[in-house]
């Protein structure tokens, strides 16, 4: 059943052996990563600057292919390298270090799980960790395109003919399918899970919104 008090949570976690943690944007706000949807958030800033049809166009693969500049203006604000993990990230890592973390399903794209050293993770919406060329599919690390993103340019693939291929960070956009990892892990993990912890997420976005209902 659901546990509502801090004491309940401590009691549950002290006995749980196979914890699934679902984490969302809320756990990274104290790291200084701007909230997408707040009144003065990144969405609003980019939407006003580029006159987007709606904020979600920022993550629409068809809009991106036609005009990638708004997305890269957004990416500059949350690009990995300057942000440090929060207590929440360290808590998830501590669960893992004690052999109690079955999996961390994160909705975040900021790579702070990797910085913290969390290995048993599924990045449900992809992340900035790598970028792939839309034309030739070559993959590069986030460090390789950092200079272009910092200077507000669209990163291009050096191996493509005429260098025309855009290097798009490996974040799942609207209009793109989720990686196979989510389905594969969730089917294996949920029957073994003895505690589900949701932190920093309103659980409104699929696929993680469906996780509680999938518990046996």
From TrEMBL:
Gene3D superfamilies: SIR2/SIRT2 'Small Domain, TPP-binding domain. Zn(2+) binds at residues 133, 136, 157, 160. InterPro entries: DHS-like_NAD/FAD-binding_dom, NAD-dep_sirtuin_deacylases, Sirtuin, Sirtuin_cat_small_dom_sf, Ssirtuin_cat_dom. One of its GO terms (molecular function) is metal ion binding. Residues 1-216 form the Deacetylase sirtuin-type domain. One of its GO terms (cellular component) is nucleus. The active site is at residue 125. The keyword NAD applies. This is Deacetylase sirtuin-type domain-containing protein. It comes from Diacronema lutheri (Unicellular marine alga).
């Amino acid at each position: 059943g659901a546990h509502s008090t801090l004491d309940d949570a401590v009691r549950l976690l002290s006995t749980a052996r196979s914890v699934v943690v679902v984490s969302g944007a809320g756990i990274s706000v104290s790291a200084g990563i701007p909230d997408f949807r707040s009144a003065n958030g990144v969405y609003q800033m980019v939407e006003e600057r580029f006159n987007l049809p709606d904020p979600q166009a920022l993550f629409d693969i068809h809009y991106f292919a036609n005009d990638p500049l708004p997305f890269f203006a957004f990416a500059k604000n949350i690009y990995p390298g300057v942000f440090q993990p929060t207590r929440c990230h360290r808590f998830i890592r501590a669960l893992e270090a004690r052999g109690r973390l079955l999996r961390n399903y994160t909705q975040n794209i900021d790579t702070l799980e990797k910085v913290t050293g969390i290995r048993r993770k599924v990045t449900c919406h992809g992340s900035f960790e790598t970028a792939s060329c839309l034309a030739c599919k070559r993959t590069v690390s986030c460090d390789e395109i950092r200079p272009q993103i910092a200077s507000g340019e669209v990163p291009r693939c050096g191996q493509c003919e005429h260098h025309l291929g855009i290097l798009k960070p490996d974040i799942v956009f609207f209009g793109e399918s989720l990686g196979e990892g989510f389905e594969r892990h969730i089917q294996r993990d949920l029957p073994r899970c003895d505690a589900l912890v949701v932190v920093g997420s309103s659980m409104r976005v699929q696929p993680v919104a469906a996780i509680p209902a999938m518990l046996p």
